[in-house]
Amino acid sequence: MDEKDSRQGPQRVDLTRFRAVLQRKALPERFKVDKYPEDVPAMLRECYIAEVMRRRMQFIDDESTQSHIEKAAKWLTGNCKPGLLLFGTVGNGKSTLARAIGSLIGILYESAYFDQRKTVRTVSALELADIAKNEPERFNSIKKAELLAIDDVGTEPSVVKVWGNEISPFVDTIYYRYDRQLFTIMTSNLNAEDLANKYGERIADRFTEMFDRIPFINHSYRK
User: Fold this and answer.
1) What per-residue confidence (pLDDT) applies to 83?
2) pLDDT of residue 17
3) Which of 30, 36, 135, 154 could bridge 190 with an S-S bond, Cβ 3.0-4.6 Å?
4) Number of Cβ within a 10 Å radius of residue 56
């Protein structure tokens, strides 16, 4: 502080300008569907039906399915958490709903211009581990995807060896996306306690902050 500053007293921060600097560094808002928001529930339902029919299964329009679709549509269009976790027992529509969300976004945001196109990259947790081991550049691309869906979380090995080093592909991906608040969908047969036991309390705590959750407690549709 020079002699003039000492006569005027200590300098003070202009908090208005300081807040403006912080806002410039803030993370961008999570992607959400802003096209035809009132019609998203109906469109997502049609995408869900199409996924069921594609696998030559019968669409069962029960209360559970309706509720899952409505909650997912609300998450897609609302100011919600950056992640969505679909969890519950096997065969009750978790993966089908995740694929339907990806299909809806792909249709609504299809464009001839690459920078305007939106695509949900979908990979199983088991595939993610294999890709991390054998295709590190592809793994980094998936980890950094703007929109990502990871299916069957909990079926993958906790660590894999790459050139003699042990890495945790799923955990590394979640940490990366958590830090950047990126749009992430997960499906799992594990409940909150099982996830904490498999990945530890630190990652489970991040799940709580990062993911809205839709429980699937209905019976299997694969019978």
Assistant:
1) 97
2) 85
3) 154
4) 6
Residue 214 CA, chain-centre distance (Å), reads: 13
Our measurement of the distance from residue 73's CA atom to the centroid of its chain's CA atoms, rounded to an integer in Å, reads 14
Q: Which of 50, 54, 112, 105 is nearest to 76 (CA)?
A: 105
Residues 173, 175: Cα–Cα separation, whole Å: 6
How many alpha carbons lie under 13 Å from residue 201 in its C-beta half-sphere?
0
Mean pLDDT per block of 10 residues along the chain (223 residues) reads 53 84 76 95 98 92 96 97 95 95 97 88 96 94 97 91 84 95 96 89 92 91 74
**Which is nearest to 105 in space by CA: 96, 93, 113, 117?**
117
In this prediction the pTM is 0.87
Helix locations, 9-78, DSSP H:
15-24, 40-54, 63-77
**In the prediction, which pLDDT does 153 show?**
96
Instruction: For residue 221, give every residue at least 6 positions away whose Cβ sits within 8 Å of its Cβ, in sequence order, or none.
Output: 57, 58, 60, 91, 92, 93
Contact 188, 87 (CB under 8 A): yes
* CB environment 149-168: b (16+ within 10 A), e (fewer): bbbbbbebeeebeeeeeebb
**Which residue in the block uniquely carries the two structure tokens 């090995």?**
157
